Amino acid sequence: MNFDFQDLSGTFTTLDIVVALSLSFVLSSIIGWVYKFTHWNVSYSQSYVQTLVIVGMVISLVMLVVGSNIARAFALVGALSVVRFRNAIKETRDVGFIFLVMAVGMTTGTRFCVLAVAATIAICLVIVLMSKFNWFKLDVQRQVVKVQVPPEQEFTARVEDVLIDKCKEFELVSTEAVRAGALNELYYTAQLKKGVKPAELISALSAVNTGQRVTVLTGYDQTDI
Fold first, then answer.
1. Are the beta carbons of 113 and 19 closer than 8 angstroms?
2. If residue 186 lies in a helix (H) or strand (E), which one and from where to where?
3. Cα–chain-centroid distance for residue 64?
4. DSSP 188-201
5. Closest Cα to residue 65, out of 16, 19, 119?
6. Residue 142: exposure state from Cβ atoms within 10 A (0-12, 13-18, ≥19)
7. Which domains does the chain have, with CATH numbers?
């Protein structure tokens, strides 16, 4: 019995399979470690990093199967189109890593091994440099302020007087009726004046809203929730 893969596929050999899958595993693992090393926020997922490695190897396998056969390519597109992903990506940066391991899988699967290694090293180096030197960081830290007040207009005016006193700038985002209309919930984005602490803002707002709930979320544009 002949188990030569060349006879079965006519497009790749056993060595091609070993090299493509091994190289995609190594390079995808490197990308996974770079992701772990450069991840700052609280939404780190071990499952996501393991998925990066799996995706890199699967794409490499897919490219081996497709080769230069257009019919196979369309067949695989049709088969994979039934897959639906329900998990939301928490960071836009995570999408970049998915595309990176897909590109690595494509290059290893099509036997562009030198390109795969060079691209992985270059792109991972850029990612590490951006993380280490904190490129493109916005030094302005903003707050989301949520205040519950009685529905009378005078209480809204009092809240805004406090914001004028404590903040360099602020903007009303939305107003929502809560507790069957007994209260209004006001949402603002604001930037505190230099030296003003969030606790001071909470204390000042609590003094003018009849003791209703006050919430200040700091750094909402830089931290995932």
1. yes
2. strand 183-192
3. 30
4. EEEEEPTT--HHHH
5. 16
6. buried
7. 5-132 (no CATH), 143-218 (3.30.70.380)
Please tell me the distance from the alpha carbon of residue 102 to that of residue 210, in angstroms, as a whole number: 56
Residues near 109 by beta carbon (within 8 Å), at least 6 away in sequence: 20, 24, 59, 60, 61, 62, 63, 64, 66
Residue 213, C-beta contacts closer than 8 angstroms, at least 6 positions apart: 146, 147, 148
Q: CA 106, CA 48: separation in Å to the nearest integer?
A: 20
**Residue partners of 29: CB distance under 8 A and separation at least 6:** 53
27's tokens: 């390079």
pTM here is 0.67
Q: Which two three-digit tokens encode residue 36?
A: 């772990």
Query: Under a CB-based contact definition with an 8 Å cutoff, are residues 160 and 166 in contact?
Result: no
For the chain, 225 residues long, give each residue's pLDDT as a single digit of tens: 555 544 445 567 888 889 999 999 999 999 999 999 998 877 788 899 999 999 999 999 888 888 766 666 666 666 555 555 566 677 788 889 999 999 999 999 888 999 999 999 999 999 999 998 888 876 667 788 999 999 888 988 999 999 999 998 888 888 888 888 889 999 998 888 888 888 898 899 988 888 888 988 876 554 444
Strands 183-192 and 167-178: antiparallel
Two tokens at 130? 């951006």
What DSSP element (H or E) covers 145?
strand 143-149
